[in-house]
Amino acid sequence: MAEMSRTEWESLCDGCGKCCCIRLEDEDTGQVYITDVACKLFNPETCQCGDYANRSALVPDCVTLSPVNVSQLHWMPQTCAYRLVAEGKDLPNYHHLVTGSRDSIHDVGMSVQDAVTSEELVDENEVPTRIVIWPGEPDID
Fold it and tell me: Would you call 26 helix, strand, or coil by DSSP?
């Protein structure tokens, strides 16, 4: 991974959108829960960031993935291509680098396409009631 160009690294993103969903951590146990509430910049139709180039400035807690930090981010989706590659695993059969189509992840239901609500539309106190388990994510911790 360290030898990948920026373009090669960026091409790993499968476009699932799971990493753009708000997560909650139990302070006592450290357990991480994922919700169906997405970052204000996330476009639920395209499963892409609405301002990718400026995301870190607009959303200060947005994490920029890199070959250096990806293996340390235990909260990343288990189906995430970055995580899979970092763990030495194969890409799933629906990944666009396998199928040749960016739509294949949506076609098999492994993305959050049209299934999330913007954080701007959800009261902060309601977020804990919106915990979900996305397909392929049986035991995020």
Answer: coil
CA-angle at 88, arms to 39 and 112, nearest 5°: 25
Cα–Cα distance, 50 to 42 (Å, whole number)? 6
The residue ranking higher by pLDDT, 71 or 120, is 120
Q: Among 16-25, 26-35, 46-55, name the one with the lowest average pLDDT.
A: 26-35
Cα separation of the two ends of the chain? 24
State the alpha helices, DSSP H only, in the chain. Answer: 6-11, 55-58, 81-86, 96-99, 104-107
Q: Model-level pTM? A: 0.90
Residue 20: strand, helix, or coil: helix
